[in-house]
UniProtKB/TrEMBL annotation:
Protein name: Cytokinin riboside 5'-monophosphate phosphoribohydrolase
Transmembrane segments: none
The organism of origin for this protein: Bullifex porci
EC class name: hydrolase
EC number per UniProt: 3.2.2.n1
Length: 193
């Protein structure tokens, strides 16, 4: 996929802010960077946490935001402050994830909790088995993902993850490098069949 093909980027991150204020500021700046690069944000919807910060950063810089909510979150508490240009409501979390995966041309992971890890591992698994060949980037803000990266390297060392699959991940603490790499990197993984 060449850079001209990347127009929509899914961002997975926390629906809370964490306990380090820099996460909020950096995620807002990252949203601004997406907008500056004419990349539409596709995310889980709502204004809460880092998810809301990224969306607000896109919105504040005249970018386009697509939110995808499951019915369970289709309420005024979640939609108190609208940051989406388009809001898609799906029946459940599975349909929500599939919609986000289908819409996006690439995926970027920012700090978050188990929901963020669930989304990362699912999309990484799908790449490994050949469901898609879209770029996946880990934006390692303040070294947040260092332990996860070490664990994935241990999986390689112990023979449970191939080097090629691990190396297909884009990992950086530099937002501009992430944007450049998701547009330009092309990795075709060997078939698992």
């Amino acid at each position: 996929m060449h850079m001209d093909n990347i127009t929509k980027v899914a961002v997975f991150c926390g629906s809370s802010f964490g306990n380090d204020d820099s996460f909020k500021l950096i995620s807002h700046s990252f949203g601004a960077l997406l907008a500056e690069n004419s990349l539409t944000l596709v995310y889980g919807g709502g204004y809460r946490g880092l998810m809301g910060s990224v969306a607000q950063g896109v919105k504040d810089n005249n970018g386009h935001v697509i939110g995808v909510l499951p019915e369970i979150f289709d309420n005024d508490m979640v939609k108190l402050k609208s940051v989406e240009d388009e809001l898609i409501i799906k029946k459940d979390m599975h349909e929500r994830k599939k919609q986000i995966y289908d819409l996006a041309d690439a995926f970027i992971i920012l700090p978050g909790g188990i929901g963020t890890f669930d989304e990362f591992f699912k999309i990484f698994t799908w790449k490994q088995i050949g469901y898609h060949n879209k770029n996946i980037a880990i934006y390692n803000i303040n070294g947040f993902f260092n332990t996860l990266i070490s664990f994935l390297k241990e999986c390689v060392d112990k023979g449970f993850l191939s080097n090629k699959v691990f190396d297909s991940l884009i990992i950086s603490e530099d937002a501009n490098q992430i944007i450049k790499d998701i547009k330009e990197k092309k990795v075709i993984l060997p078939s698992k069949i």
